[in-house]
Amino acid sequence: MSISNAQLYRYRVVDVFTDRPLEGNALAVFPDASGIDDATMQKIAKELNLSETTFVVPATRSDCAVGVRIFTPARELPFAGHPTIGTSFVLIDEDRVSSNAERFVLEEKVGPVPIRVDKSERPLIWLRTPPISEGATFDREICAHVLGLDTSDLLQITPQLMSAGNPTLFIALKDKDAVDRAWLDSHGAAVLKERYRRPMCVFVFSPTAHGAYSRMFAPDYGITEDPATGSSTGPLAVFMMRHGLVSGAAGTRFVSEQGSKMGHRSILHVHVFGERGASGIDVGGHVTPIAHATMSL
To answer: How many C-beta atoms lie closer than 10 Å to residue 4's C-beta?
Structure first.
C-alpha cells in the first residue's frame, strides 16, 4: 500500500502515575481504534514497544462509556492499571466523557472497571481494582535465588501469587537496597514457571514509612521491567495488609513508589474501602501528556 493510500490513526502518548514529563510509565492511546483488527493491534504494540498500548473501541455494554483493549508487546491483557488511568485521562481531555464527570465506567476484557476523578488543577484519577484472587505460595529460597539475592534479603513472609486479572507473585524484601539489587531474567522466570505454568508478573517490594518501594518484572509479557503496575497494586495492598505491613483499617491510604531504579519514578496511590479492603481498593495517579502522533497503516 502506498503512503498516499494509507489509513491514518491518531494516537497520544502520556506518562502515567506522575506529574512530571518523562517519568512514570509511558502509554500510547489510540482514541479511535475502530477498523484496527486484533492482529494489527498486537503488531502496533510491538512496534511502539511500550509496556502497554491501548485501543479505544465502542462499548458493548450500555453502562460503559467505551471499550478499551490493552496490549503489551507480546500479548493482550484483560486488565492493567496504568493503561486504564492513562486512557481515562485521554477520554476526559478529548471530551469523550464529560470534563465534569467524576465517575464513569470502562469496559475491559476483565469486565466493567469503575473510574472516579478527584478534581483539581491536575486531576487524580482512580480505578476500582477488580476482584482479587489468591494463588500458590512459593519457596523463599528459590525466589531469592532467581532474583540474585540471599534468602536473608527476604522478609520472613512466604511469597504468594495473587491476581486482579494478571497473576503476580509478591516477594517482600527487607529494604530498598535489596529491591534495587533484585533482577529477574528469562531463565529465572522459567524456574518459577516450574511451579506455575502460566505467564505471571514478579513483584518485589519493601515496606516504607509511606507504603512500599517496589519493582516489577514480567519477561513472560515482553516487559523486562515495568515502571508502574496498577493492576498489581490492589493485590499488593491485600498482601501487605494480611502480613501487617500496612494498616488494614477502612480508609487507609498509602503510596507505592515504583520505577525509580529505572529512572521512571512512579507514585501509585492506594485507598482502602472497608476493613482490609472488603468494600474495594482503589488505585490512583496523575497523568502527564507527552505527545500527539499519527500512524500510517
So the answer is: 6
Domains and CATH numbers, the chain: 3-129+286-296 (3.10.310.10), 133-282 (3.10.310.10)
Cell numbers standing for residue 184: 529477574
Q: Which residues, 6 or more positions from 155, have their beta carbon under 8 angstroms from its beta carbon?
A: 172, 173, 174
Beta bridge partner(s), residue 296: 8
**pLDDT tens across 160-219, in order?**
999 999 999 999 999 999 999 999 988 888 999 888 888 899 999 999 999 999 999 998
Please state the length of the chain: 297
Q: Which three cell numbers stand for residue 150?
A: 540471599
In angstroms, the Cα distances linking 139 to 160, 169, 192, 234, 291 are 9, 11, 10, 23, 44
Angle in degrees, CA 247, 161, 217, rounded to 5: 95
Query: Left (φ > 0), alpha (ψ -120 to 50) or beta: where does 54 sit?
Result: beta
Q: State yes or no: is 225 an active-site residue.
A: no
Distance CA 115, CA 110 (A): 14
Gyration radius of the chain's alpha carbons: 19
Candidates 52, 108, 225, 257; catalytic one: 52
Residue 162: its H or E element: strand 160-163
Query: What letter would DSSP give residue 261?
Result: G
